[in-house]
Amino acid sequence: MQKTDSVTLKLLIQIAFAILFFTGCLNTEGTLKLNGKVTDAATEEGIPFKKIIVKGILNSQENPVQIEAGQFSTDSTGCFTFLLRKIKGAKNYNFFLVGDSGYLFKNNQMTLFDLEQYAVNLNFSLEKLADLTIKIERKSKIPDSDTLLLCWDSNGVFGGSIYPYKIVNYGKTYKFTSGVDLIWIGGMVNSTVTTKVFAEKRSKLNWELLRNGKRMEYEDTITCKRDINNFVVFKY
């Protein structure tokens, strides 16, 4: 019975906290005017109309609680002016730079002390993404069926976590996917994988072919250029 009462009390506390938040009754400690710019990490040019969500972090014994302190977007030159709503008790703030097809999502955490020190000259940078098309074609007719695995990374980051990939299979292709590899099993493999990787960064592709009880590994690297469609072709 005591355990049930404890769970009920905890639930009531969580509900009360949610009500305070959504009704705007959460205590704040004034505001802080911020000025800055969001730039391309390589070219240092401003990124226009980039959305940023700011959340104050309240520490707790179990899990930190994040309270939204506002959101804004950069102007046509990548610059911004934002009035931060300081959350009472929050000594750290997360600046979530929303990702899209051009730039990868990024989170910048800053202390309130640093925000006050650099309030008039903040700079956030983002990594540019480039298009990558991977074409796969099975030329061998023997054996009737084998297994091909593919995984890739860009600048050391697992490719599947950078940007959602799309697969188009032609012919009688059986495909299975996992969190790490793409897997094709069959004898008429003809597929195209489209995705995005970091522009101007080294991307590495690894294929593993299982045929007649033997395993063969192949590797290719590419540095993808920005603003064009980059191609890798693998025939086996």
Task: Explain what this protein looks like in three dimensions.
- By secondary structure, the chain is mostly beta strands.
- The protein has 2 helices and 17 strands.
- Strands 9, 10, 12, 13, 15 and 16 form a 6-stranded antiparallel beta sheet that branches.
- The chain is elongated, with a radius of gyration of 24 Å.
- The termini are far apart.
Summarize the structure.
The chain has 236 residues and is mainly beta.
Structural class call reads: mainly beta
* Main sheet overview: 6 strands, antiparallel
| C-alpha end-to-end distance | 66 Å
Poorly predicted ranges: none
How large is the share of residues in beta strands? over 45%
C-alpha Rg (nearest Å): 24 Å
What is the secondary structure topology, with strand pairs?
Layout: H1 2-22, E1 28-40, E2 51-58, E3 65-73, E4 79-87, E5 92-97, E6 106-111, H2 112-117, E7 122-126, E8 129-137, E9 146-154, E10 157-158, E11 166-170, E12 174-177, E13 182-186, E14 190-198, E15 202-211, E16 214-223, E17 229-235
Parallel strand pairs: 1-7, 8-17
Antiparallel strand pairs: 1-4, 2-3, 2-5, 5-6, 8-14, 9-10, 9-13, 9-15, 11-14, 12-13, 15-16
